[in-house]
Amino acid sequence: MPINKKQLHRMVRFVAQLKENRYPNCNSFAEELREADISENRNLACTAKTIQRDIRVLKDEFDCPLIFDQEHNGYCLKHHGWDFKCPQLFEEHEMLAAVLGARVAEDIFPEPLKSSIRQAVDFQLASNNPDFLDKAIVKSLTVIPGLRANIDPDVFMTVFHAWQQHEALDIIYADSKNLESKRRIEPHALVYYQCSWYVKGFCLKRNEVRTFALHRIVDAKNSGLCFEPDEKIINSVLNDHFLEYKEISGIELLCDFDIKSFVTGSPLHRHQQIEPVDEKSFRLLIPAIPEHEILQWVLYQAGKAEVIKPASLRSKVRKKAQKIADNHRK
Questions:
Q1: What pTM value is reported for the model?
Q2: Where are the domains of the chain?
């Protein structure tokens, strides 16, 4: 049966949710389309009955292997090997998103995934010629990710595929002292954090959740064993304490006003608070932060940030500063 552009866009969104295991149902998806009309000006809103007809089209016309999961109250795919083979109808803003995404990916992902993403977008551009596409303009978008740790491309792709396919890995891991150990891990979350790649998962050797830096993985092989992704582990990936270092809570700093823009632009915590004291200073309140990070930050300010609370942190800053002074007497 003929499919109009509006219906195709609905089905593409619905299939994307199936592929991402988000368990959409007719009511929840119809509500999401209504919200998209407001936030994205998409004009896709429809009734739950229309969504039901789209689902029948996916089944009958595209052999989509979807089923309704009672536990999650939504639809899912029996297997993810199915591809939605439909006409490619890209609007200009969609092509812009793809091009910008590929540009960022070039500076974040290592090879060979970096080239694969680039080639996928180039393939889309071959059959779509958006007006915005000016090589000079696209080239002028630059991402500077900072100094990155070197990762073995084979190790990265082995970890990436294991994360993607929910398969356990046998790895050789070198710790901070370069001592190597053999581990079997379940890679539940793949994380790009502060210019480095990490995998957070379950270590079967330690029988606990652990985080592993990919640049410290000496070797990685697929174990042939599968696992079920753990939502608790995935949801535990938070920027404020991702690496789970020892944290200090209830920090209060008295800072010079001339570093306020720096503190605002590069926050130490997403819930930090800035309270003005006078024209020359402000108070910075930080809920919690790893001890080594706040020590380094305060010392880096060269006297423009004074620790008020807690007293234990104030004492450690004083000792660190004294040691630096002692080392530079001559």
A1: 0.58
A2: 5-77, 92-139, 153-239, 247-327
